[in-house]
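Supplementary Note 3. Input sequence used for the single-chain structure prediction.
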Amino acid sequence: MKKGKRPIGSLLMALALIFFYLPILFVILFSFNESKSLTHFTGFSLQWYEKLFKNTAMMESLYTTIIVAVVATVVSTFIGTIAAIGLSKSKRTVRDLVLQINDFPVMNPEIVTAIGLMLFFITLGIERGLLTMMLAHIAFCIPYVILSIMPKLKSLDPNLADAAMDLGCTPWQALTKVIVPEIKPGIVSGALIAFTMSFDDFIISYFVTGRGVKNLSIMVYSMSKRVNPSINAISTLIVAIITIVLVIINVIPLIKERREKGVEKN
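The predicted structure, written as discrete structure tokens, is reproduced below.
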């Protein structure tokens, strides 16, 4: 029975991979299309990349997206890490209550969060623009960072920090040299999730922005009503950037491990 199920499982896995990656390959292929057609490849050309880099509005939206994503990732990772460490040392009742509140924005529909943030900024009289977009992205990224780090903290020995301080560490040294290195995988995964969520967000960004400030998702939405192959070009560029970042993140730890093993052997 198990042998009979393996080909079916492999087939389903292959179909799932095709379903996920074929549209991406389609976008990459037609970003080099000579004509405006999105169904017939007529010849190789880089004209859409050239037009992309000459399109001031689209490049500004790309810069806005990167700036907001980087700021949201850094701030939310820092706040989420400190909050998760604090919750791990809190009483169980307080920890469970805060974690339940933390789960609410994750389960809440984005449209509800978007309207809530928009009304919040309007009530406070804050003019919507780049600042409100950054604040909104930081707000919805923090819960994902906390959720990524908490399992790592639960797996740690609760007496680890006390043991480090007994051996001469200050509380800050115990935090930065003992606790943080142990939960580093959770911090990195939380930061990657935060960056992806911020970079990809459309609904919340659409409601909290103003004064002509557009991120990439809003710009692509405004261009989707008319045929523009530059969308394929900028999508390919984003895929290339994300692929490079993922390769670097996965390759650097392997290089460090090999160097450490080489030092130990010597």
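The CA atoms of residues 185 and 202 lie 28 Å apart. The mean pLDDT is 84.
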